Amino acid sequence: MAKRYLLLADIRCSFQSLSAILITALIIGAIYLTSESGQLLTLLEDYGFSDGQVSNTNNVSLAECNLFAGKWVYDNKSYPLYKEQDCTFMSDQLACQKFGRKDLSYQHWRWQPDQCDLPRFNATRLLEKLRNKKMVFVGDSLNRGQWVSMVCLVEASIKPLFKSMHNNGSNLITFRAKEYNATIEFYWAPLLVESNSDDPVSHRLPERIVRAQAIEKHARHWTNADILVFNTYLWWRRPFMKILWGSFNEPEGIYKKVKMLRSYELALKSWADWLDIHIDRSKTRLFFMSMSPTHERAEEWGKSVGQNCYNETDMIARQGYQGHGTDPNMMKIVEKTIDELKTIRGLNVQLINITQLSEYRKEGHPSIYRKQWDPLTQEQQINPSSYADCIHWCLPGVPDVWNELLYAHIFNY
Ligand SMILES: *[C@@H]1O[C@H](CO)[C@@H](O)[C@H](O)[C@H]1NC(C)=O
Ligand SMILES: *[C@@H]1O[C@H](CO)[C@@H](O)[C@H](O)[C@H]1NC(C)=O
Ligand SMILES: *[C@@H]1O[C@H](CO)[C@@H](O)[C@H](O)[C@H]1NC(C)=O
Ligand SMILES: *[C@@H]1O[C@H](CO)[C@@H](O)[C@H](O)[C@H]1NC(C)=O
Ligand SMILES: *[C@@H]1O[C@H](CO)[C@@H](O)[C@H](O)[C@H]1NC(C)=O
Ligand SMILES: *[C@@H]1O[C@H](CO)[C@@H](O)[C@H](O)[C@H]1NC(C)=O
Ligand SMILES: *[C@@H]1O[C@H](CO)[C@@H](O)[C@H](O)[C@H]1NC(C)=O
């Protein structure tokens, strides 16, 4: 087709019209080529990754791209990024397939930002970055799930004898990549500040008590980390907190009931003050994971009252959906705290905004397909309204995408 156009061109035509014809020919040629290799192009699009800085969906560089605005795309070619049974350190609380989940579509969703593509997760590249370094996830069980996901994402590229996991029986679990002298650790501190829930195993208490001004006991364990990833949200979700003035060891401590938002603000202030004084700005990268939504009330997405995330197999389609599993007022406090750290104290904490993209994923939770301390009994399994876990996330799944976003920030922002 392109050839015929060129033959039709009059050799006496002006320079302008010749170049116009040449451009037309090139465009038509390109269309021709595209239809020839259409299948290949479709495959590439499905694969949906770019390695470079400039995306193939748009002309926005990663550094300028809002990674948190986008959509989920079903992609069973390149997702999941690892197989559940292949991850040496998988947690039984998150291994939904192992505990009987049949519908596995939750493993196949890729996050597609509107303006650009996420960079491909390259475990070797991350491990190189972590050589002689220490990365610590600090927070609650949601953050622990993300840490497990991170370990699963990198461990496949490390030979068996060159990796280890050590739980020191206290708040710290350490994954070590020996060849790299790198560690990826999880530190249990669900409210960041000191609380009566600091025991990583027995922390289910009727009353929640925090020392909103005291963080040193935990923080001294991660002062020298190179990358810190924090979260704290769900443990605050009650109307009031009891704040303790004094120490947990003194029987005569003074307790005061304080509205949750106020106590959350106090705790984040203690956290920010601690960072300001102790963090080496030239060494440590700081990240804060925003709220992870829960899906415990199915009436919020049009099902009947009393149901929850159990039996869900697809996500919520409504753009911008926000359920009651998140609290925008808490998000505002986080934003304000991080903003002040940046502008007033010159400390760059990057907010990884996973809230909206996770809101859609009502089908991504373990529900009854999990082991808590013991596998659920049959009686519990037939009573999902009481026993379904609609808080944590199956792996592989949503937290892998959180880590892809974290990865993108580590390398590009
Ligand atoms: C595309 O990106 C390049 C390199 O960043 C820039 O020079 C150019 O102006 C951009 N074009 C558009 C249309 O945004
Ligand atoms: C988080 O991302 C969503 C989706 O882009 C956006 O609507 C929301 O404002 C963001 N929140 C914060 C605190 O950045
Ligand atoms: C991938 O998804 C497509 C579309 O849903 C389906 O036709 C195909 O069988 C799936 N392939 C695998 C390997 O699951
Ligand atoms: C991953 O990163 C390593 C180290 O930077 C590099 O040698 C390798 O080519 C990368 N792999 C891919 C598939 O890009
Ligand atoms: C190993 O990594 C730690 C940080 O986690 C660092 O302090 C130490 O110097 C490293 N060892 C070597 C031999 O580089
Ligand atoms: C566990 O590790 C932490 C942090 O290094 C340390 O303070 C604590 O004493 C250790 N606990 C045990 C039982 O080894
Ligand atoms: C689960 O979903 C299937 C298919 O939508 C439906 O037939 C079944 O009744 C549901 N089970 C419960 C317990 O809701």
Automatic annotation (TrEMBL):
GO function terms (MF aspect): O-acetyltransferase activity
Domain of life where this protein originates: Eukaryota
Domain (Trichome birefringence-like N-terminal) ranges: 64-117
The protein's name in its UniProt record: Trichome birefringence-like N-terminal domain-containing protein
Organism: Lithospermum erythrorhizon
Membrane-topology descriptor: Single-pass membrane protein
Tagged with keyword Membrane: yes
Family: Belongs to the PC-esterase family. TBL subfamily.
